[in-house]
Amino acid sequence: MHLLLGLETSCDETSIAILRDGREVLVNLIASQVDLHARFGGVVPEVASRRHLEVVHPLLSSALDEAGVGFGDLTGVAVTHGPGLIGAVLVGVAVAKGLAFSLGVPLIGVNHLEGHIYSAFLADPALEPPLVALMVSGGHTQLVYMEDHGVYRLLGRTRDDAAGEAFDKVAKLLGLGYPGGPRVQEVALKGKADAVRFPRPMQGRGYEFSFSGLKTAVMHARESFSPEDLCASFQEAAVDVLAGKAALALEETGASRLILVGGVAANARLRERLTADCAAAGVHFVVPPMSLCTDNAAMIARAGWQLASRGVVSDLDLDAFASLPL
Ligand code: KG4
Ligand code: ZN
Fold first, then answer.
1. Is the peptide bond before 227 cis (omega within 30 degrees of 0)?
2. Using a 6 Å cutoff on CB, does residue 267 contact ligand 1?
3. Nearest ligand, CA of residue 170?
């Protein structure tokens, strides 16, 4: 897989990347739809699929141009085939199949969550399993033990809202706008993390998460505290729960590496806390740069490359899935 094209359209980012020899990202273009969905306060699935359709071909031309690569140079196509918004996933899968078929190169269906895990392998090329992955995004919150390439054990996930979803809902509740994560983080800078005594949901109860109660607690405290203190205290509670369960996973699996992936990995407080915790525990901590944390095609290409190197490729009847376990 000398030049692998990656395609990602599972939510509200259309992204195309070209990866050389499994490690060098020649280009990783991301066309975000955030502005399009902002006025609805969240992603509207049908609007997302239509925008993917509009931008995917121009983006493909730009990616090839920027990488200085022609269609005929591509040696494979890796695409997210789930989990995600089904109409959105279908756009990427259809484009990828068309490309793979017309160029006569292998097609590789990639699980979006596996893609997020491999963002850490792009960030740290020397990284090797076994490791613990804390995957936190707008759609997912889970702890996974990666024993080897392709060998995963789900330790636990959220029962209700994802961590990013909780940030988004708290921001909406406080009228801070969308997407909520960055806004809450910014407002939290001026508040006190111990001002409101928010619960630490599911703490001490294994690896399952729950964030909807925390959001409700913010709603009830809204009248009595400033937005700054509410944001700082909410963020601290969320970070505390995530860090606590990550520490438990490291302890119980005996893994000496932790990766933090997904959109919420952009959160400065979470990065700071995990950096400190891992340093104290002698754990190697990897968190990718922002451009690789939010949805992007470079991570899909990297995961696809790993699959192809083990001979795992897809047929042209590859399906798209709204839900797809690791
Ligand atoms: O991985 P991602 O781009 O898309 C999904 O697959 O969901 O993650 C987006 C999520 C949103 O919920 C957003 O609010 C959250 O990541 N996020 C943050 C921060 N930046 C983005 N959450 C907390 N703090 C941030 N700085
Ligand atoms: Zn994602």
1. no
2. yes
3. 1
Strand partners, 109: 79
Ligand 1 atom closest to the Cα of residue 163 is 12
**Closest ligand 1 atom number to CA of residue 140:** 7
Q: pTM for the full model? A: 0.94
Q: Is 180 close to ligand 1, i.e. is its CB under 6 Å away?
A: yes
Cβ-Cβ contacts under 8 Å for 7 (sequence gap 6 or more): 15, 16, 56, 77, 78, 79, 80, 92, 95, 96, 297, 300
Q: What is the residue whose two structure tokens read 């997020």?
A: 116
Distance, CA of 34 to CA of 38 (rounded, Å): 6
Across the chain, which has 326 residues, the per-10-residue mean pLDDT values are 95 95 96 84 86 96 97 98 97 98 98 97 97 94 97 96 95 91 96 96 89 94 97 98 97 97 95 98 96 95 98 97 94
- Residue 43 · residue 32 · CB < 8 Å: no
